[in-house]
Design a protein that fits this description.
The chain is of the alpha/beta class. It is built from 8 helices and 21 strands. α3 links the parallel β3 and β4.
């Protein structure tokens, strides 16, 4: 399909264009500064129109009418003048219920489009979007989350009303998927009703700020966010999109001695921790056992012998592993174990432990294999 997006260079427009292109559609883009002939040409080509063009922070109140009402009138007039029927999706706002200049302009655009539908039979879908967040949003313009993400990632202060109630948020990917499904006829919606993107993601500004600050701290404490919570997963993706290009990388602390080094990479309260162990040639590490803690070793470079002995037995079990053939070795509880670099080069071992190290209760007891 040829899908026209007005406001294609905006936050929602950029994301929706990517989704549509991925699904094999042709995207026609328009912005407010395009020439009139471009508007007419692209509107008449389109099989579907998604009208996102609008303003929410103009220099004067009059710009609300021009940006939010006159822009959709412009689209409709071209359709009417050429006797063309094309389904239209209109981007409105939950502010349309409020008696303020922005809300009034959005409500006027809704009413105009619904009236056009009644007269012409042209399908229209009016969406009241609420607190949309995600990559490519603009701070101090699109949403509170965009502003918080930008400020926190750039070490700037944020203003929080700690008594503010919970707010419903919509993630940009969920919005784009809903619009794509509607355009492709995979979902049906009542043209006569106001449309919403349903969400259960309700948080206070204080809760959002606390989560974002935990993301910032994770580069130092290495605690990875809970990716099992869908909202936190989406919020973390959004936060990362606000990092400056020089801030994508961060350093880790390596604990070094004559035997090699040990570097923690990631920690998780419910998924344990992930580390990198470097072992010098001829060096043996370990010689201890655990009662409950368990680990996984993966040699990614070099050659090592991993030895086990159940603490109530004399039998020694040996696994020879190397980076030439990746093989994970489980370290079960009740077995004292060690790992020795038997090669002539440094060995590098990825290590996962099922729990975070607790120096008060390490569950680690020295015993030679």
């Amino acid at each position: 399909m040829k899908v026209l997006i007005t406001g294609v260079n905006g936050f929602i427009g950029k994301n929706l264009m990517a989704f549509l292109l991925e699904r094999g559609h042709e995207v026609l883009g328009l912005d407010k500064d395009d020439e009139p002939y471009a508007w007419k040409e692209n509107i008449l080509k389109a099989d579907y129109i998604v009208h996102l063009a609008g303003v929410n922070r103009p220099l004067s109140k009059e710009e609300f009418t021009d940006g939010n009402v006159n822009s959709i009138v412009r689209v409709v007039n071209i359709l009417k003048e050429n006797d063309k029927i094309t389904p239209i999706i209109l981007s409105s706002s939950i502010q349309a219920i409020y008696d303020n200049p922005y809300g009034k302009s959005k409500k006027a655009a809704e009413d105009y489009l619904f009236n056009y539908q009644r007269v012409s039979g042209n399908p229209v879908y009016v969406f009241r979007f609420q607190n949309v967040f995600g990559k490519w949003s603009r701070p101090n313009y699109n949403s509170m989350i965009a502003t918080f993400c930008y400020n926190i990632s750039h070490n700037l202060d944020i203003q929080i009303n700690e008594s503010a109630p919970k707010i419903s948020f919509v993630y940009i990917d969920d919005l784009c998927l809903a619009l794509c499904d509607l355009i492709e006829g995979k979902t049906r919606r009542d043209c006569k009703e106001i449309q919403y993107i349903n969400t259960d993601d309700n948080y206070t500004p204080k809760e959002i700020a606390d989560i974002l600050y935990s993301f910032k701290a994770s580069r130092n404490n290495l605690h990875i966010v809970n990716q099992g919570n869908s909202f936190i997963k989406k919020l973390y993706a959004t936060y990362l999109s606000f990092l400056d290009k020089d801030d994508f990388a961060y350093d880790l602390i390596s604990h070094c001695d004559s035997r090699g080094s040990f570097t923690e990479i990631l920690k998780s309260e419910d998924r344990g921790q992930f580390s990198l162990n470097m072992i010098e040639p001829g060096i043996t590490k370990g010689n201890h056992y655990h009662h409950t803690k368990n680990e996984k070793f993966l040699v990614i470079k070099g050659t090592c012998d991993i030895k086990f002995r159940r603490i109530d037995s004399d039998e020694v079990i040996t696994y020879r592993v190397s980076g030439d053939k990746l093989r994970v070795v489980d370290i079960p509880p009740g077995y004292t174990h060690n790992i020795k670099n038997i090669g002539e080069e440094k060995a590098y071992v990825f290590m996962w432990a099922n729990e975070l190290f607790d120096k008060e209760h390490p569950d680690t007891f020295a015993l030679e294999v």
